[in-house]
Design a protein that fits this description.
Blueprint (H helix, E strand, L loop, with lengths): L2 E5 L4 E5 L8 E3 L1 E3 L5 E3 L9 E3 L3 H9 L6 H5 L4 E5 L2 H6 L2 H13 L4 E3 L1 H12 L23 E3 L5 E3 L13 H14 L6 H8 L1
Parallel strand pairs: 2-8
Antiparallel strand pairs: 1-2, 1-7, 3-6, 4-5, 9-10
């Protein structure tokens, strides 16, 4: 589901697409340098499952941790992530609604931050607004990655995110949505004329 990430210190709200569906899920575990380890539970008392890799959210957290204690980040006091079902996302101006709720609750004015989207549009324009015929030389290139692909898990183990689970600025680019996605759907036969299909089945 689409998500909204909020930094309460910066008073910003960021639209954040969900991670790809093929990313494996693991139990959400909070660990402190003191050795304390807590498994986060859902409303049914079962371990809450989270994506094994979430580069965009991790990148957001790194930018907005403000050197605060871990608990301020992990317990929603500083950074909060809200999942929004697709129907609600498509049917209403969710940002305006959330900004109003935040202002009513805190008395502070929150603004929408579109760092990733704005960077993707700027990149698209700098590349001459490419289409399928021209292509984009930077499409899914390493320099367009979001977040880190290699990191330490805190226990001395190096973790590498598999290529299919990485996130790129290209995921938010008009080239991806106006051309690449449309072409992939066309190849799957999703845009066939229903009248043509009907004639073939007669």
């Amino acid at each position: 589901m689409p998500r909204l990430a909020t930094c309460h210190m910066c008073r910003i709200i960021e639209r954040m697409p969900d991670v790809p569906k093929n990313i494996p899920l693991i139990p959400c575990v909070l660990e402190w340098t003191t050795g304390e380890r807590v498994i986060v539970k859902d409303d049914d008392g079962l371990p809450k499952m989270v994506p094994m890799y979430d580069p965009m959210l991790e990148n957001f957290v790194r930018k907005h941790d403000h050197d605060l204690p871990d608990r301020a980040v992990t317990h929603g006091d500083q950074i909060q992530v809200v999942e929004v079902d697709q129907r609600t996302w498509d049917s209403m101006d969710i940002i305006t609604q959330v900004k109003k709720e935040m202002q009513d609750a805190t008395g502070e004015v929150y603004t929408e931050n579109q760092e990733y989207r704005e960077a993707a549009i700027k990149c698209y324009q700098e590349h001459g607004s490419p289409d399928l015929q021209d292509g984009c030389s930077d499409f899914m290139s390493e320099k367009k990655q979001i977040g880190q692909w290699n990191y330490d898990d805190g226990e001395g183990h190096k973790i590498t995110i598999p290529p299919q689970n990485r996130q790129y600025m290209c995921h938010l680019c008009p080239f991806m949505h106006a051309y690449v996605v449309v072409e992939l759907r066309r190849r799957k036969g999703m845009y066939k004329d229903p009248k043509t299909r009907h004639r073939r089945t007669r």
